[in-house]
Amino acid sequence: MSLICTGCGAPLQMDTEDAPGYITNEAFMREQPVCQRCYRLIHYGQFQPMAIPEETYRQVVMKALARPSFVLYVMDLFDVSGSIVPGLTGVLRQHDVMIVANKFDLFPKQTADEPVKSWLLREARRAEIPASDAVLVSAKTGYHMDELVEQLEARARKKQIVVMGMANVGKSSLLNALLSRLDPEQTRFTTSAFPGTTLGSMAIKLGDNGFTIVDTPGLMGKHRIQDRVCKASLKLIMPTERLRPRVYQLQKGQSLFLGGLARFDFIEGPPQSVVVYVANQLRVHRTKLQQADSLYQRHLGGLLTPPCVSCDEGLRTLVPKNVSFTEGRPVDLAIPGLGFLRLSGHAIKGVIHLPKGVTVNVRNALL
Ligand code: GDP
């Protein structure tokens, strides 16, 4: 009996469902067993998310990018700063890179494409991602998926298509949506170990249409809140439906809590509106700055939740950072994995409190 998946080549294991090579006991008894991930792909045409730690991630992606590739760099529009894969700029420069910005369905209905696209490409340049183009999509609703397929037809036939992105950006959902369009019959999937790696990359040939897709695992990181909360808390911070902007008319001496994961104190400046874009189900609590510390002490894990006791312990200590802006353009304070606060552009001095290891990203306002 082989201990290697005959589909992707990953060593078979029964311990961790979202790690490469996972197989159930029952499936392991079959002849020529394949891991759960290959099984679902081969038989149901379904991709399954897979995340691996940073140390191994880079090796996997470098191997996948050893050949000329058309790279689909998948990002989550709700969490652009948390979608940036650290440290791959150099190797990406040798390839044709397109940003696929997913979850457009979360944005307000009237959001226009072009300004968001230009904004995104500017942000990508700032992060040194060598992308030639971006497409805004929703794997969930199918928005612009046909346009993405047209781009692939035109630009990626002779190259392998490498799909990469941080965990939870919706890479698997996107691949599932792509597959159903590139190969509607879904009859001919074969997976194969990506040459030289057993770490979780998988090459998929799509029928006779000439496409080869290389799926890479998702990357997780301590700098993103979504990777440090428990499964129950993840449901409270991941948006599932169109974001309902929450507008707060704030004045100095007031604080806003985003669950118990972030706090914004308004220290100095004229009264102004702050718009909070977080998952609709996450509780936002306004209080007096004077009472904010004691409220946090008394209600963390209750009124102010997540985090809960099952989340990473480090999320229960918030570290303050001063932020200050003169009168000018509106800016966002983006918190990886949690959402963003839109400041109106009036002068303001404030303090943002975030869990240790999580950094606020200041950017031109997106919406
Ligand atoms: P992966 O880890 O990058 O492979 O991400 P998944 O495909 O597993 O998706 C992560 C989460 O994002 C899941 O809760 C999905 O339901 C959700 N998701 C994926 N695509 C979309 C989308 O287009 N819109 C919305 N609103 N949610 C999405």
UniProtKB/TrEMBL annotation:
Segments forming domain NOA1/YqeH-like C-terminal: 272-366
One function term, GO molecular function aspect: GTP binding
InterPro entries for this protein: GTP-bd (IPR006073), GTP-bd_ribosome_bgen_YqeH (IPR019988), Mito_lipid_metab_GTPase (IPR050896), NOA1/YqeH-like_C (IPR048422), P-loop_NTPase (IPR027417)
Domain G: 160-226
Pfam families reported for this sequence: MMR_HSR1, YqeH-like_C
CDD domains xref list: YqeH (cd01855)
Coiled coil: none
Protein name: Uncharacterized protein
Provenance organism: Ferroacidibacillus organovorans
